[in-house]
Predict the 3D structure of the following.
Amino acid sequence: MSDEALPIEAAQPQGTPIRRLLALMAKEYAQIRRDPSTFVIAFAMPMLLLFLFGYAVSLDPRATKIALVVQDESAEAARLTQAYARSPYFHVRVLRSVQPARDLMMKDEIRGFIVLPPDFGVAMARGRPRPIQVVTDGTQPNQATFISSYAEGVRANWAMSEMEARGLRNIGPPIDVSQRVWFNPGLQSRFFLVPGSIAIVMTMIGTLLTALVVAREWERGTMEALMATPMRMTEFIASKVLPYFLLGLASMALCTLIAVVMFGLPFRGSILALLLIASAFLLPALGLGLFISATTKNQFVASQMALFASFLPTFLLSGFIFEIASMPWPIQALTYAVPARYLIPALQTVFMAGDVWAIILPNVGIMLLFGFFFFFLCFRATRRSLDA
Amino acid sequence: MSGPATGPNVGIVARADGIVKDFGGEKPALGGVDILVASGKVTGLVGPDGAGKTTLIRILAGLMTPKQGTVDILGAAPAQRLDSIGYMPQRFGLYEDLTVRENLVLYAELRGLSKDAQEPVFKRLLEFTDLARFQRRPAGKLSGGMKQKLGLACALVSTPPLLLLDEPGVGVDPISRRELWAMVAELTREGIGVLWSTAYLDEAELCDSVYLLSEGELLFSGPPADLTGAIADRVISVTGFADRRRLALTRALDRDDVIDGTLQGRAIRLLIGAGHPVPDAAALDLGPETKVAPAPARFEDGFIEKLGGGPDGTSVLAASYREIPPSDAPAIEARALTRRFGEFVAARDVSFTVPRGQTFGLLGPNGAGKSTTFKMLCGLLTPTSGSGSVAGFDLRHSAAQARGALGYMAQKFSLYGDLSVGQNLDFFAGAYDLSGSDAREAIERVTEIFELGTHFRRNAGTLPLGFKQRLALACAVMHQPSVLFLDEPTSGVDPVMRREFWTHINGLVRRGVTVLVTTHFMDEAEYCDQVTLIYRSQQIASGPPDALKARAGELTGAADPTMEDAFIALIEASDADREEAEAA
């Protein structure tokens, strides 16, 4: 065959890294634009989350349905009844005996009831106040605690005004505690839930979406075709990082806009600080996502891993919903390994307090360290090879 | 590499020596393989599934590292020669949500094709692949054949000296395959060296030189004519026994001098072992009308000889199978079966009748409606209109009984890979309502027949391909059904296993079992008594294989057309008719 074979030479390399990177990013952009699920994750889901946390989920106490069993006809009992009825925390049904209250509890129509005993007014007049009974539904422990402490609060206030009315001012508390809450004067939970949702959204885009899109390349066999071109693996990684980094920032900006415009969240810091914080967080989020997909190469496993390694920790261990200080110490120790733990205080600071660099910078620094670590793992795991 | 190359490497674009690759299995995936790819030639890498073809191609493309051996692509390691290698993976590597043009642009940019050069290259490639009309269509919405061509175009954007094609012909209808070959032939004229891997042995005959791979070992390398030449005068075609062709084949295969045999319509084709004289009609003793004529040798015959010959003609399975009582009622009947999915008609007015004890073939390109028809007859899909019956049970009213009366062997491997062989048999015995001693007997019987005993506790997923095939057939026939449905039963297995499989099927048919088979192996269609060709959801031709071949001969004027020629001629005739009707 050599008699007619043509002499042949190796082709000379022609491309440049920048050209290949741009081509890969153009491809990524076309895919993002055409894949409705990307839009759902990047824009529809953040909106849903924000509205959910902004309106539907609130950790603030609201009027709880209780019954008040008044077995006494005295003026004192009537005044206490009124005090309960006026309280914004209770929705009170007044009854005359315990049995109907018990029935209401069984039917789950009330969460608890308070009993004013028959000699309530008489004992009060004699200066030996009778205890009142508070019965609560222990199947909902948070609400049960809430009812008993607020019931006691209302009673204490009422007792004070009774004393005052009789001129016994000196019985009042010796120290008057005047409370003032800084940064969130109304103690509205949505003020700290919204920054939390921004963390969730950036985790979804940075880790889950990125893990999925890289795993998809392995699953559909396009990775194999790409690796057979002169493309370098760094170019491939960069082509995934940049678009999803921008997408993450866009989604964060959307969340911030909604939070400020629709929920009236204050924004006391600067946009620069917000950008810095978000960028510092997206680094570990993207690095983790790329690392997961480089090791699993399968969309289903990648999504499960992303859920366990990033979404759940961000949700549970970042201080977003559950206060870290009230966790048992081993769990508290665990939270230090969750990058979102450093994002939440920084974000809350920039929204509620302003550019307090003493809080922002250390948190940003730690997030960057996490980012470098995950990218290091990712580069180690990504090789131009199909050998398992 | 400047100036004209001289010496022993003239025109060699890729060379690999002593390649060993081990994935930790019982045998290495490649056990010391040498290969040369010459420029301007098509080099065939031929072998059944699991032979090591993909592994070898990936090593040449620099995507895997061999455990031992050296790879040289134009004087350097593959990783240094990525600009010189065009590679089309088995799954094409296309982005389904990108359009045809966007896919081309991506690969052109990745390969650094200058912007000025791109337009003429795209124009040429799109013309070449006949995809110019579909430039704006997402790749995911192309047919299988079109995706293949686009995959090829993407591998060719920078005219690489070496083109690696991993099974480009798999799952594609014969027409697209022929077009693909024509394209590759054109490329070799430009000096490109092509490595074409395939499991279809007929493709091997089209290559300039061939490497035949089986279980990681090279069985043969050289021009295909060297392999067929060695057996050229030992292949004969025997005719003249009317309807007793299966019996004739069985008797011929049981002879010591016959190492392989297949049904070819009304004829049988035999390969005589080396050192034996070619028997005449009298020696074969198959009846007074018997005629013996020499037949052209095929690559597959050579492969079979290299593997040590095919199995004997008597099927142990058939010997222990119950005799299906004769009956005049058809075993399978389709009456105007139609299935719509929304606007799309997947099968339109499909009608045929299969009498007891016959083999019936459903042929057609992928996506033509074979599987839809098949599923309606299995009772897995309800027909939109029309009716059918299997083993006397009407599909509309007693689909469950119909399913109970048939044995089903699904496309590819559909057993439980994580269950052992024994557990799979147990499960299918239960699924077919065998219990207690009946189930035990059935399992013992098929275990012995298919020699599954040594693998009984092994997970089905880890079995060698041939044993998976046996296990799948064992599960389908355990309850001795009177009707067997086989969906692409032998795709990817080596020819000896295919022979063994068809020996069993032929034996069962002689016991009165009725077989419905879908296949895209055209030579398998020759085993059928009747076939129907489904194209664009409709039957375009039906009849015995010989009759279809004869009609194709009339259409094209070709003497002695193969089943594949018939398939292509009939589809082209149907396309011409349709265009005429649309124009009118």
